[in-house]
Amino acid sequence: MDANLLKGNLELILLTILSDAEMYGLEIIEEANTRTDGYFEFKEGSVYPALHRLTKQGFLEASFKPSPRGNMPSRYYALTGKGKTALQTKQLEFDQFAAAVRGLRPS
Fold it and tell me: Is the N or the C terminus of the chain less surrounded, counting Cβ atoms within 10 Å?
């Protein structure tokens, strides 16, 4: 997969995953991998900065909760109202973009 494709769509992917339920970072990475049959194999170094950016923009809220792995508490991320609106906008933009790219295929 071209890394530039991922770079331009990482926020959409994260918001989409978090639209179902709040999750902690490693859980988000595992969920993306599972839902795409291994197509998305995110590294923590790309996901965590994006989660922090989305939180700073007000699209996500973060809270610490007990870790299911029994270690120290984990930071859970949840979509905010602003995040739900951003997700809808990003999904629409992506759908329009994908349709335009498909329209470029040779006849």
Answer: C
